[in-house]
Write a structure and sequence with these properties.
This protein is of the alpha+beta class. The protein has three helices and two strands. The two termini are 16 Å apart.
Protein backbone atom coordinates (compact mmCIF):
# COMPACT_ATOMS: atom_id res chain seq x y z
CA UNK A 1 0.00 0.00 0.00
CA UNK A 2 1.24 3.49 -0.80
CA UNK A 3 -0.07 6.56 0.94
CA UNK A 4 0.67 10.06 -0.26
CA UNK A 5 -0.43 13.64 -0.39
CA UNK A 6 -0.52 14.85 -3.98
CA UNK A 7 -2.99 16.00 -6.60
CA UNK A 8 -0.88 14.46 -9.37
CA UNK A 9 -2.27 10.96 -8.92
CA UNK A 10 -1.00 9.44 -12.17
CA UNK A 11 2.58 10.35 -11.26
CA UNK A 12 1.98 9.10 -7.73
CA UNK A 13 0.71 5.75 -9.03
CA UNK A 14 3.81 5.28 -11.19
CA UNK A 15 6.05 6.36 -8.31
CA UNK A 16 4.44 3.61 -6.19
CA UNK A 17 5.29 1.07 -8.92
CA UNK A 18 8.82 2.47 -9.17
CA UNK A 19 9.39 2.21 -5.42
CA UNK A 20 8.02 -1.33 -5.35
CA UNK A 21 10.26 -2.33 -8.24
CA UNK A 22 13.49 -1.00 -6.72
CA UNK A 23 12.79 -2.14 -3.14
CA UNK A 24 11.08 -5.50 -3.72
CA UNK A 25 10.67 -6.46 -7.38
CA UNK A 26 14.21 -6.20 -8.68
CA UNK A 27 15.82 -7.83 -5.60
CA UNK A 28 13.39 -10.76 -5.84
CA UNK A 29 13.47 -11.07 -9.63
CA UNK A 30 16.90 -9.77 -10.74
CA UNK A 31 16.68 -11.39 -14.20
CA UNK A 32 13.22 -9.99 -14.99
CA UNK A 33 12.82 -8.14 -18.27
CA UNK A 34 9.03 -7.77 -18.16
CA UNK A 35 6.52 -6.43 -15.66
CA UNK A 36 2.77 -7.09 -15.74
CA UNK A 37 0.54 -4.60 -13.93
CA UNK A 38 -3.16 -5.21 -13.32
CA UNK A 39 -5.15 -2.04 -12.71
CA UNK A 40 -8.73 -0.91 -12.51
CA UNK A 41 -10.06 1.06 -15.45
CA UNK A 42 -10.80 4.31 -13.66
CA UNK A 43 -9.00 7.08 -11.90
CA UNK A 44 -5.40 8.08 -12.42
CA UNK A 45 -4.29 4.76 -13.90
CA UNK A 46 -7.13 4.38 -16.40
CA UNK A 47 -6.48 3.28 -19.95
CA UNK A 48 -7.19 6.78 -21.32
CA UNK A 49 -5.01 8.79 -18.94
CA UNK A 50 -2.10 10.17 -20.95
CA UNK A 51 0.04 11.15 -17.94
CA UNK A 52 -0.18 7.59 -16.57
CA UNK A 53 1.08 6.23 -19.89
CA UNK A 54 3.88 8.80 -20.19
CA UNK A 55 5.11 8.28 -16.63
CA UNK A 56 4.90 4.50 -16.98
CA UNK A 57 6.88 4.62 -20.24
CA UNK A 58 9.54 6.75 -18.51
CA UNK A 59 9.76 4.20 -15.69
CA UNK A 60 9.98 1.29 -18.16
CA UNK A 61 12.92 2.94 -19.98
CA UNK A 62 14.63 3.79 -16.69
CA UNK A 63 14.23 0.25 -15.31
CA UNK A 64 14.98 -1.51 -18.61
CA UNK A 65 11.65 -3.35 -18.49
CA UNK A 66 8.87 -4.10 -20.91
CA UNK A 67 5.77 -3.06 -18.97
CA UNK A 68 2.32 -4.40 -19.86
CA UNK A 69 -0.82 -3.08 -18.18
CA UNK A 70 -4.03 -5.14 -18.12
CA UNK A 71 -7.04 -3.10 -17.02
CA UNK A 72 -10.02 -4.65 -15.33
CA UNK A 73 -13.30 -3.62 -17.00
CA UNK A 74 -15.14 -0.71 -15.41
CA UNK A 75 -16.87 -1.81 -12.23
CA UNK A 76 -14.92 -5.06 -12.03
CA UNK A 77 -12.07 -3.98 -9.76
CA UNK A 78 -13.86 -5.76 -6.94
CA UNK A 79 -12.57 -8.98 -8.56
CA UNK A 80 -8.95 -7.85 -8.28
CA UNK A 81 -7.29 -10.57 -6.15
CA UNK A 82 -5.02 -8.04 -4.42
CA UNK A 83 -8.02 -6.04 -3.22
CA UNK A 84 -9.68 -9.23 -1.99
CA UNK A 85 -6.65 -10.30 0.04
CA UNK A 86 -5.73 -6.88 1.41
CA UNK A 87 -9.26 -5.86 2.28
CA UNK A 88 -8.28 -4.70 5.75
CA UNK A 89 -9.56 -1.35 7.03
CA UNK A 90 -7.21 1.60 6.70
CA UNK A 91 -7.18 3.89 9.69
CA UNK A 92 -5.89 7.43 10.13
CA UNK A 93 -5.34 6.89 13.87
Amino acid sequence: MSVGDTADTASFAVEAVRRWWYTMGRPRFPKATKLLITADAGGSNGHRVRLWKLELAKFAREAGLTVTVCHYPSGASKWNPIVLYTGFPVSTK
